[in-house]
Amino acid sequence: MLLEWWSGTECTLFSDQAAVDKFGKEHVIIILNHNFEIDFLCGWTMTERFGVLGSSKVLAKKELLCVPLIGWTWYFLEIVFCKRKWEEDRDTVIEGLKLLADYPEYMWFLLYCEGTRFTETKHRISMEVAESKGLPKLKYHLLPRTKGFTTAVQCLRGTVVMVYCDQGCLVIMATRTFSDQLMACLTTWAMPAQY
Questions:
Q1: 3-class SS at 32?
Q2: Which of 4, 73, 104, 153 is deepest in the core (most CB within 10 A)?
């Protein structure tokens, strides 16, 4: 893998064999954490490993359209862009996701529910919000932004057959209710020591 060679790193996936056997053979949503600037490259390393790099999609901030080469490439690869202001993004995000609903190749939709990269300052602010809303304080994560996730699941329902969380949360959409799926992933974020 180019990233691993270039950076001298190794991306390791821990999962059960039954799940691994399906990777790259179905439409899925992958929930990832965003701790470093290159986290998206690790996600793409996994997509490359399972043969879906060319059909991987993300929900990305609109500013990335201005990055030379990457912005135009992502635009033509049907990446869904947002301004991170839901009132302005709702229609654009829904339209972009609905275009992916009949994507002809197996697609992985990579989603960073925290909405931004983890820093100590952002973590402090996020935990203040959690406290004010009576939500659990998370030690290693920011408070997830659920609108992008719930919208992605709703728009891709019938296309996406699995939602995978990078911390071990495996949600089978066909047998669980939407609220069960959301709680399973958010619970995994709230209690990472279990995995």
A1: strand
A2: 153
